[in-house]
């Protein structure tokens, strides 16, 4: 059983640490010139600022150069969001396909978007006018789709692969015809991944065996005049095959000089386009994550139980089918690589080979998968370029720029936005960062309705904990948290908490107890199973001496609870607040100050002798 605990906030330090695969020894590299200027045009918040709902699990997302965000979900629905000066605004909603969206592609100029599905149809949208302009019926099941034209070309060429053969077909989206203008076979097997390098007018594709190919969208031939090799044996393009893995995602840098591949083996490989040589390999395997957890690097360490829970999610991802494949992307300068891991979203300086920032490390309820980056200028409506010459890294951040990272997460119906702003703490909890722009599913509404019918009149509203260091008087909130209070007071009456130790004490944070095993891994509810969270807008971790339930993730409450010794707002909507200490604060502080070992367990046991519960 996973350990249960209250998570302590960790502000992600924005400093360089050695990353997973250290650079080869040699002459130390000079720092990246104007690094801070580049970082100022990237998201920097530790927590996501906003999230918006889809009706089903979000699987695809993209950012258009025309200042639009486009997101697709498992139920075949597509949403357009307009990028505003600050944040985004919903624009339009389409039922794109009856089944899941299998692919989403946005053209390089940001004007066209397409979706494909197993229903053998392609839907093409005018992004700026957010309108469906063409539907193409295919005689085959599509495997991958990619726009393969440059800005200003007469024909809006769209490449679509056949999922059951090596064939690839080029269509003219503006012609509206179901007949391709060009067809051919590039690989020996079906193409699974495809990306267009508009700078060199070359398409990079990968088949199901991990074989990579370059080809020109006009001739379907190898572009000899655009690369510095003739034979793939002179490159590292067989690296994926050698490692017996495949390609999950493929992204090209804005300058066309690099591309990055993610694979099921959890390695991120960065290639030089013209030579086909490997530039970097980053190992994000679970074994490496465990090694980092045991290291002394604070940037990579998590609370022990939080890490265990995240590892369990990673193993669940590996067993789950049709999970959105994680990707890695470049920033507009091509100096930084961004990708999601179990630790959070890493931003890596490719020049110095160091992690410079981790976003969302404290978001322990969300495992981010696919990401897309927006770095636009809201006045010119063009992609912002950083001027290296004469740049002053000490200047304040450009207020016209709102860099935003768009993310989707494992088994979540939401899209998440990371910016340079931390989320606000509104007085009304219903107006928080998680926007309810869709009607909750019927089962959720029914659960809320049943919860409202709970009988709370017979539940006590106070208890007294008698400990070896003194008494702690607690006020409870049965009206707001009936199930939690019922569980807690029933355990108290039955003597469940008698002689249990405070197994985890962290000065300046909290004291935790309620585990019969005394190590944070035990305890269960009065129903013999985990029960759901009960968050209430009026009960927050906004002050010390707050009584709250420990858990191992959403809806995993058992018997363990903790009392905070400071305000801990980062725990809001993660742990159920069901009481406050009204007398005996000095006892709580005395427990907080006891000496502990490196696992935060007191050297000398502090126990709950028994609990007094008034008759209801």
TrEMBL record:
<dbReference type="InterPro" id="IPR029000">
    <property type="entry name" value="Cyclophilin-like_dom_sf"/>
</dbReference>
<protein>
    <recommendedName>
        <fullName>peptidylprolyl isomerase</fullName>
        <ecNumber>5.2.1.8</ecNumber>
    </recommendedName>
</protein>
<dbReference type="InterPro" id="IPR020892">
    <property type="entry name" value="Cyclophilin-type_PPIase_CS"/>
</dbReference>
<comment type="similarity">
    <text>Belongs to the cyclophilin-type PPIase family.</text>
</comment>
<dbReference type="GO" id="GO:0005634">
    <property type="term" value="C:nucleus"/>
</dbReference>
<dbReference type="InterPro" id="IPR002130">
    <property type="entry name" value="Cyclophilin-type_PPIase_dom"/>
</dbReference>
<feature type="domain" description="PPIase cyclophilin-type">
    <location>
        <begin position="459"/>
        <end position="613"/>
    </location>
</feature>
<keyword id="KW-0143">Chaperone</keyword>
<keyword id="KW-0853">WD repeat</keyword>
<keyword id="KW-0677">Repeat</keyword>
<dbReference type="InterPro" id="IPR001680">
    <property type="entry name" value="WD40_rpt"/>
</dbReference>
<keyword id="KW-0413">Isomerase</keyword>
<dbReference type="InterPro" id="IPR036322">
    <property type="entry name" value="WD40_repeat_dom_sf"/>
</dbReference>
<dbReference type="Pfam" id="PF00400">
    <property type="entry name" value="WD40"/>
</dbReference>
<keyword id="KW-0697">Rotamase</keyword>
<dbReference type="Pfam" id="PF00160">
    <property type="entry name" value="Pro_isomerase"/>
</dbReference>
<dbReference type="InterPro" id="IPR044666">
    <property type="entry name" value="Cyclophilin_A-like"/>
</dbReference>
<dbReference type="InterPro" id="IPR015943">
    <property type="entry name" value="WD40/YVTN_repeat-like_dom_sf"/>
</dbReference>
<dbReference type="GO" id="GO:0003755">
    <property type="term" value="F:peptidyl-prolyl cis-trans isomerase activity"/>
</dbReference>
<dbReference type="GO" id="GO:0006457">
    <property type="term" value="P:protein folding"/>
</dbReference>
């Amino acid at each position: 059983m996973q350990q249960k605990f209250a998570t302590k906030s960790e502000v992600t330090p924005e400093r360089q640490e050695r990353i997973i695969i250290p650079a080869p020894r040699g002459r130390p590299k000079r720092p990246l010139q104007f690094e801070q200027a580049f970082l100022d045009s990237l998201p920097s918040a530790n927590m996501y600022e906003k999230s918006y709902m889809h009706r089903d699990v979000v699987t695809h997302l993209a950012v258009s150069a025309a200042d639009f965000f486009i997101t697709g979900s498992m139920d075949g629905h597509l949403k357009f969001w307009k990028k505003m000066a600050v944040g985004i605004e919903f624009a339009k909603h389409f039922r794109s396909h009856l089944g899941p969206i299998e692919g989403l592609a946005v053209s390089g100029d940001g004007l066209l978007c397409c979706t494909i599905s197993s229903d053998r149809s392609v839907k093409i949208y005018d992004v700026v006018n957010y309108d469906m302009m063409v539907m193409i019926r295919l005689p085959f099941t599509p495997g991958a789709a990619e726009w393969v034209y440059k800005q200003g070309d007469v024909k809006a060429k769209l490449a679509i692969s056949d999922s059951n053969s090596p064939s690839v077909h080029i269509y003219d989206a503006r012609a509206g015809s179901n007949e391709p203008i060009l067809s051919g076979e590039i690989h020996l097997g079906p193409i699974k991944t495809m990306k267009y390098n508009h700078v060199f007018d070359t398409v990079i594709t990968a088949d199901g065996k991990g074989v990579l190919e370059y080809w020109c969208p006009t001739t379907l031939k190898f572009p000899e005049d655009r690369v510095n090799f003739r034979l793939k044996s002179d490159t590292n393009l067989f690296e994926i095959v050698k490692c017996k893995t495949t390609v999950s995602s493929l992204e090209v840098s804005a300058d066309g000089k690099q591309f990055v591949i993610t694979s099921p083996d959890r390695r991120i490989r960065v290639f030089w386009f013209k030579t086909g040589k490997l530039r970097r390999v980053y190992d994000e395997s679970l074994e490496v994550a465990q090694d980092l957890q045991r290291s002394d690097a604070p940037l990579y360490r998590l609370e022990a139980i939080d890490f265990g829970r995240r590892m369990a999610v990673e193993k669940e991802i590996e067993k789950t089918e049709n999970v959105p494949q994680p990707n890695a992307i470049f920033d507009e300068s091509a100096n930084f690589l961004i990708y999601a891991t179990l630790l959070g979203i890493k931003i890596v300086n490719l020049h110095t080979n160091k992690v410079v920032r981790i976003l969302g490390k404290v978001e322990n309820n969300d495992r981010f998968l696919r990401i897309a980056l927006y770095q636009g200028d809201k006045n010119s409506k063009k992609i912002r370029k950083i001027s290296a010459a004469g740049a002053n890294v000490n200047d304040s951040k450009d207020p016209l720029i709102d860099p935003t990272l768009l993310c989707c997460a494992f088994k979540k119906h939401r899209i998440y936005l990371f910016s340079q702003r931390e989320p606000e703490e509104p007085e009304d909890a219903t107006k928080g960062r998680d926007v309810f722009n869709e009607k909750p599913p019927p089962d959720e509404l029914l659960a809320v309705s049943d919860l409202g019918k709970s009988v709370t009149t017979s539940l006590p509203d106070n208890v007294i904990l008698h400990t070896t260091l003194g008494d702690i008087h607690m006020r409870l909130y049965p009206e707001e948290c009936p199930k939690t209070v019922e569980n807690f007071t029933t355990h108290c009456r039955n003597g469940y908490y008698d002689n249990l130790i405070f197994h985890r004490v962290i000065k300046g944070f909290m004291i935790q107890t309620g585990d019969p095993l005394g190590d944070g891994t035990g305890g269960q509810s009065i129903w013999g199973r985990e029960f759901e969270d009960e968050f209430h807008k009026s009960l927050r971790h906004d002050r010390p001496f707050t009584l709250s339930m420990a858990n191992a993730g959403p809806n995993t409450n058992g018997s363990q609870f903790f009392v905070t010794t400071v305000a801990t707002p980062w725990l809001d909507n993660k742990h159920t607040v069901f009481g406050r200490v009204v007398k005996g604060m000095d006892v709580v502080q005395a427990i907080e100050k006891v000496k502990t070992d490196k696992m935060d367990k007191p050297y000398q046991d502090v126990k709950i002798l028994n609990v007094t519960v008034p008759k209801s």
